[in-house]
Automatic annotation (TrEMBL):
<dbReference type="InterPro" id="IPR003607">
    <property type="entry name" value="HD/PDEase_dom"/>
</dbReference>
<dbReference type="GO" id="GO:0046872">
    <property type="term" value="F:metal ion binding"/>
</dbReference>
<dbReference type="Pfam" id="PF00233">
    <property type="entry name" value="PDEase_I"/>
</dbReference>
<keyword id="KW-0479">Metal-binding</keyword>
<feature type="domain" description="PDEase">
    <location>
        <begin position="185"/>
        <end position="542"/>
    </location>
</feature>
<dbReference type="GO" id="GO:0004114">
    <property type="term" value="F:3',5'-cyclic-nucleotide phosphodiesterase activity"/>
</dbReference>
<dbReference type="InterPro" id="IPR036971">
    <property type="entry name" value="PDEase_catalytic_dom_sf"/>
</dbReference>
<dbReference type="InterPro" id="IPR002073">
    <property type="entry name" value="PDEase_catalytic_dom"/>
</dbReference>
<protein>
    <recommendedName>
        <fullName>Phosphodiesterase</fullName>
        <ecNumber>3.1.4.-</ecNumber>
    </recommendedName>
</protein>
<dbReference type="InterPro" id="IPR023174">
    <property type="entry name" value="PDEase_CS"/>
</dbReference>
<dbReference type="GO" id="GO:0007165">
    <property type="term" value="P:signal transduction"/>
</dbReference>
<comment type="similarity">
    <text>Belongs to the cyclic nucleotide phosphodiesterase family.</text>
</comment>
<keyword id="KW-0378">Hydrolase</keyword>
Amino acid sequence: MIAEILVLNTHSTQLPLFVSNSFDSKDTYYKTFTNITSLCIYLSSFSSYILSKKDKDSKVEPISNTSETEFYYPVGIIINSENQVVGKEPLDSLSLRSQKRLLESRFHHLNTTVSIIPFSEKKLDSSFIEELELIYSCTKDRLTRIETWVDLNPKIADLSDNHTSRINTMGRILNDYSTEFQLEEESDFMARLTASVDYRSLLNTPKSYEYYLSIINSWEFPAYNLNGDELLYCGSIILLNAIKKYSPEEIVGVENRLLSLLFYVRDNYRSGNPFHNFRHAIDVLQATNYFIDRIKEDVEFQVQLDGRTVVELLFASLGHDLGHPGITNMFLSTNKTPIAISFNDKSVLEKFHFKQFTKIISPFSHKMIANKKFYKGFEERIEQSILATDMGQHDYFVGEIDKFSNYDDESKKTIMLCSLLIKCADISNVCRPLKVSVKWGLSLGEEFKEVALLENFIKFTDPETKSKINISPICPPEVIRDIDAKKAIELVPGLAGSQMFFITRFAYSFFSKIGENIPALIFLKNQLVENIDYWESLLDASKKA
């Protein structure tokens, strides 16, 4: 079992011998912290918590998460019940039980198991180790992880509510909704984290603010050429500038709170998904912001969004795919997953995304901004936008494009415009300049390939048979990052066909109507037509060959 064991002990920086003797040292990484603040900073850093084999002796060490590796191992946290309050940060005054609840709620994406024991007894609870082993068996490879996330792994039954783990399956996330007391507690946790952690200092952003601002304002937004920290920073610039523009009186002190939220959101996107990941979330956020700016420049366009609605739509774009497991609504319903049953097979993923985003943003939304009137109904209006991203409702929205500007109800008109804009952003990859568009086409193809493999994977119960169904990505992120259209076709000859299928079935009629009814966005159809010419030329050449 590969595991990371973190020890919180205010009395010593030395790793207790009884802890190291409890694990196979060649596959376990240890780190000791003398206060809860330093532990939370470590867990918050995107570059800290991914392990990799160090050498032929199989020792492991933390490495920078530049390869977008996802969590394939458990994180065990051991707290000395004899700890004393150490440090002056707000986090340090929390009781041990509150520290445990904080670590379990804020860092559950790390498959965290937390145990509070007296170090003087020099004994580790055997159930703690058993729990780590069980989590590892549920997360050690990609297909097993997805099977676990959607609650189809039979071992999930062993992760009962009595266990200490917080493995983030969709069912557990959905059922783990806060009581009023818990919401207040989590709000307190977030306030303490914001006061104790300088989130900006944790970001690796090698270029200037002016550079990131320039790419945010470009339709050639190079999402695949940005690391996870740069993506997060771009998101913070977009949201912070929107708040400055539309509610400037709220800007004092908001930046670090906003960064704290973005860290939380990023952690809850599944980093190993080829397409539905944090990069896609920021790409959609950037596109939505770009569209809003273009529309506001068109003074003759009759439907304009007020400041509150703009901020809500931007937040909806950020959270619209939160917790996505990398599979489809059809897969969830066909396999009768608990999450599909909970939502009656209707907009399953979209309803889940909103529910999880609500849980994450709730401790922030009433603390982050003081102007209650400005943010009245904040989460309710976000829901309508996120649900609009369900591709099962695509044809309905295509039919409404020609009608919405003539709606009698101004509120309904605004809601429809928000729905259309977030839909535009969500599927706008085919309308990006070709050198950008092709990267998204490749990543989506990788994700569909995984869904097909998973269909076979879940049919078998024999571990040996399952182990033979393995994922070998043709286009991992590091390949896509530097690829161009010509190389992409050489690597995936069927790319032109898959792109044209999506364009013909979904994109062309939608973006044609968008251009006719929202003149500021006609550039989307124009770029789409240019891309179509390229893909069709490849298909024609293939037929002649």
